[in-house]
């Protein structure tokens, strides 16, 4: 394998983005919180990774570490390489040029990225003048192009608005335009549509997908909802308590989910073909405290198939990226051990109806 470099040209046989044994540990007053603990994945150009898991599973901390925007109490270890260039441990000044231009993020709340007292055109052009060194006229033209690209009607007129004069969906389109301003290689959307109503949510997700395909960017779509990433991703990583517990090509994950947590998460996705009162909404129990995590499987306390082995020994995820990896001693499709409550044990071969399409 090619050696990672911090300078020079991209390494040809490296994927666009690769994380290896990535850890984000936070020094909190209560003790060490392992928000991300040993995560590995790779994304090629034009590929989308869906990152799913319940609240607090480490999704945001993981993508923030790729962007270099973790809280100051965070210690980042392991490796993140963009086109073969290592980002972890690189001097901030050098890394900032990469993060600012080549990896961009769209947040859940558009007001996180927008300045409420500046007009949209100014916010768009300032970032392009700063990062791309464009002149005023050029930056203005490009701002209108970007607003058109993200489907803002009457872009010239809207560009003179302040953020509060736009609807939530329009504001999110503007933040997508801002994220695209420097032509990033990787676009990260962290729950970018969660706050929007279902119709607008779908429009924004479609827009992201179209732009990503057109520009050949790598994309990471973060969501607590497997239904949102189904049919929009090439691979899915399921996070639980700071770790990946299942990682696989998307079609394979839906057809043969193996981890008991993935199974439970699928059960928690609201399905429109099931009467409202029969729709399971949440996984019973709560996620564990990441500071006092026990040594066994972190999901054991909530898992119907858990036995003494699960409580004593943490199952490992395979290392072979691109294959179907899962960290479970008693995966779906195998018999739950004697004595365990096999509540979540069956249904491995049933394909959930929320799966809209399976990428080739
Ligand atoms: N600034 C911080 N200080 C201390 N702990 C933090 C901080 N930010 C996040 N955490 C903790 O890190 C863990 C992972 O949080 P993270 O925000 O990555 O979860 P998430 O999967 O994105 O959740 P959500 O779906 O709610 O956005 C959680 O236990 C959270 O409490
Ligand atoms: Mg989050």
Largest sheet: 7 strands, mixed
Provide the β-strand percentage band. 15-25%
Order of H and E elements: EEEHEEHEHHHHHEHEHEEHHHE
Q: Which class of the domain at 45-59 and 91-243 in CATH terms?
A: Alpha Beta
* Ions and ligands: adenosine-5'-triphosphate, magnesium ion
Specify the structural class: alpha/beta
CATH architecture of the domain at 45-59 and 91-243: 3-Layer(aba) Sandwich
> What's the CATH topology label of the domain at 45-59 and 91-243?
Rossmann fold
Measured on Cα atoms, how large is the radius of gyration? Answer: 21 Å
What would the principal axes of the Cα set say about the shape?
Answer: globular
Helix content: 25-40%
Identify low-pLDDT runs.
1-8, 342-360
Instruction: Please report the total strand number as a whole number.
Output: 11
Strand order of the largest sheet: 6-7-8-3-9-10-11
Distance between the termini: 28 Å
Question: Helical segment tally?
Answer: 12
- Mean pLDDT across all amino acids: 86
In terms of quaternary structure, the protein is single chain
Q: Could you give me the name of the CATH homologous superfamily of the domain at 45-59 and 91-243?
A: P-loop containing nucleotide triphosphate hydrolases
Biased composition (Low complexity): 337-346
Region (Disordered): 337-360
Keywords: ATP-binding, Cell membrane, Membrane, Nucleotide-binding, Transport
Membrane topology: Peripheral membrane protein
Annotate the secondary structure layout.
Layout: E1 17-28, E2 31-43, E3 48-52, H1 59-67, E4 74-82, E5 85-86, H2 92-102, E6 103-106, H3 110-113, H4 120-132, H5 136-149, H6 155-158, H7 168-180, E7 186-190, H8 198-215, E8 218-223, H9 226-229, E9 235-240, E10 243-249, H10 250-255, H11 260-268, H12 308-312, E11 325-326
Parallel strand pairs: 3-8, 3-9, 6-7, 7-8
Antiparallel strand pairs: 1-2, 1-4, 4-5, 9-10, 10-11
This protein binds adenosine-5'-triphosphate and magnesium ion.
């Amino acid at each position: 394998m090619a050696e990672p470099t911090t300078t020079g040209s991209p390494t040809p046989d490296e994927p666009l983005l690769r994380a290896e044994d990535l850890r984000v540990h936070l020094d909190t007053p209560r003790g060490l919180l392992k928000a991300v603990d040993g995560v590995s994945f790779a994304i090629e150009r034009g590929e989308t990774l869906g990152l799913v898991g319940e609240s607090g599973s480490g999704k945001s901390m993981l993508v923030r570490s790729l962007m270099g925007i973790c809280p100051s109490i965070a210690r980042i270890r392991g490796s993140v390489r963009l086109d073969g260039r290592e980002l972890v441990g690189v001097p901030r000044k050098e890394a900032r040029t990469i993060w600012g231009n080549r990896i961009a993020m769209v947040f859940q709340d558009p007001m996180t990225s927008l300045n409420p007292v500046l007009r949209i055109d100014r916010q768009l052009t300032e970032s392009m003048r700063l990062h791309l060194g464009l002149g005023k006229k050029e930056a203005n033209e490009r701002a209108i192009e970007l607003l058109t690209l993200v489907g803002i009607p009457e872009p010239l007129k809207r560009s003179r608005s302040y953020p509060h004069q736009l609807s939530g969906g329009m504001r999110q389109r503007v933040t997508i335009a801002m994220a695209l301003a420097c032509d990033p290689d990787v676009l990260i959307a962290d729950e970018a549509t969660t706050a929007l109503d279902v119709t607008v949510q779908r429009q924004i997700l479609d827009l992201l997908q179209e732009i990503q395909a057109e520009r050949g960017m790598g994309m990471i779509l973060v969501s607590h909802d497997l239904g949102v990433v189904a049919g929009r991703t090439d691979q899915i990583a399921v996070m639980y308590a700071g770790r990946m517990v299942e990682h696989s090509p998307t079609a394979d994950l839906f057809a043969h989910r193996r981890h008991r947590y993935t199974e439970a998460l699928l059960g928690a996705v609201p399905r429109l073909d099931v009467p409202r009162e029969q729709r399971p909404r949440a996984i019973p129990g709560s996620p564990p405290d990441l500071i006092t995590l026990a040594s066994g499987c972190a999901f054991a306390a909530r898992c119907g198939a858990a036995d003494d082995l699960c409580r004593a020994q943490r199952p490992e995820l395979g290392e072979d990226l691109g294959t179907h990896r899962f960290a479970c001693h008693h995966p779906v499709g195998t018999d739950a051990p004697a004595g365990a409550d096999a509540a979540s044990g069956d249904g491995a071969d049933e394909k959930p109806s929320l799966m809209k399409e399976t990428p080739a």
